[in-house]
Amino acid sequence: xxxxxxxxxxxxxxxxxxxxxxxxxxxxxxxxxxxxxxxxxxxxxxxxxxxxxx
Length: 54
Description:
Blueprint lengths: L8 H9 L4 H12 L21
């Protein structure tokens, strides 16, 4: 990321060390952009599991 971005390694490391509230972020996105009957799903099947070969 350092190679293609504008930040140095230390800046990136400091940013990734900060906590992030994913539940609040996702809740805000859903409440702002989705109607009352919207269903959001995530299927992580395409992510290879540890030790398994596809």
